[in-house]
Design a protein that fits this description.
The chain is of the alpha/beta class and 248 residues long. It is 36% helix and 26% strand. It has one domain: P-loop containing nucleotide triphosphate hydrolases (Rossmann fold, 3-Layer(aba) Sandwich). It is built from ten helices and ten strands. The strands form two sheets. A six-stranded mixed β-sheet has the order 6-7-8-3-9-10, with helices on both faces. It has a four-stranded antiparallel β-sheet with strand order 2-1-4-5, covered by helices on one side. The protein is globular and about 55 Å long. The model has no long low-confidence stretch (mean pLDDT 95). The structure holds adenosine-5'-triphosphate. Adenosine-5'-triphosphate (ATP) binds next to helix 1. The site of adenosine-5'-triphosphate has 13 residues, from helix 1.
Length: 248
């Protein structure tokens, strides 16, 4: 088990956003989290690498264990965020060159060897399926890239620090179908090495890429199952209603 969530509760002021979440994630699998808008999907992802701590007014309890160690007992949040990387919904290009966007975290963690940096840059751009498109313009500003390319660049930047778990929050919501397909193929490939947790609004996307799907509703896990089983034969009425588009 790479990541295990035990009794996770999150509140913002008087609102309870996540209620008694218990979930487990394994290596080399791709997990989708689906649920209606506002049900707590983003809050759940942010709780899984302590990004929630960048917000104000939250209260969290419970455990999130990375290979058995509670990340909330760890002092070094940047190390936690390196081991559990998060890719946001909006593609982010730092005001730097393409190459320096990839190497941003690697440099932060102290790597100075030029040969090593070049190797990491090429390897991660290859992994993110972007190398062929950018190899001749690595020193150009990253802002010149398209939205789909910037999203793959964001993934390369997270991969560059060798995470064990990759979290993605609606990574395709701003992308066209061709760019979406590229990201989906990329994620299926990466899932052969990492634990991937993907929040998506798009039920077809969950069906296409996820091994296991979790349905979240009002901050609670309603149902978890092998993706095909959950979509074909949901056990709970709320799941049936959600996937057939009747409610929410
Ligand atoms: N920083 C915050 N302060 C107060 N309330 C917050 C904060 N962040 C999230 N919330 C509330 O928590 C609830 C869950 O939000 P969250 O963004 O996790 O849902 P979501 O399922 O990801 O929604 P969507 O699919 O629309 O992105 C919402 O009611 C939201 O208003």
């Amino acid at each position: 088990m790479s990541l295990q969530i035990e009794n996770l509760q999150v509140r913002f002021g008087s609102s309870q956003i996540l209620k008694d979440i218990q979930l487990s994630f394994n290596e080399r699998k791709l997990y989708a989290i689906i649920g209606p808008s506002g049900c707590g999907k983003t809050t759940l992802l942010k709780s899984l690498n302590r990004t929630l701590e960048l917000e104000r007014g939250y209260l969290i309890s419970g455990k999130v264990k990375l290979y058995g160690e509670d990340i909330y007992e760890h002092r070094d949040t940047s190390l936690i965020r390196q081991r559990i990387g998060l890719v946001f919904q909006t593609p982010v290009a730092l005001p730097l060159s393409i190459k320096e966007n990839v190497l941003f975290g690697v440099r932060y963690f102290g790597e100075r060897n030029k040969t090593k940096l070049n190797e990491i840059c090429e390897k991660c751009l290859q992994q993110a399926g972007l190398w062929e498109e950018v190899k001749d313009k690595l020193n150009n500003p990253a802002k010149e890239l398209s939205g789909g390319q910037i999203q793959r660049l964001s993934i390369a930047r997270v991969l560059a620090v060798s995470p064990e778990v990759l979290l993605l929050d609606e990574p395709c919501s701003n992308l066209d179908p061709a760019a979406t397909q590229m990201i989906e193929e990329l994620l299926k490939g990466l899932a052969k090495q990492l634990t991937i947790i993907l929040v998506t609004h798009n039920l077809f996307q969950a069906k296409r890429v996820a091994d296991v799907t979790t349905f979240l509703l009002n901050g609670q896990v309603v149902e978890v199952g092998e993706t095909e089983t959950l979509f074909l034969n949901p056990q709970k009425q709320e799941t049936k209603d959600f996937i057939s588009g009747l409610t929410y």
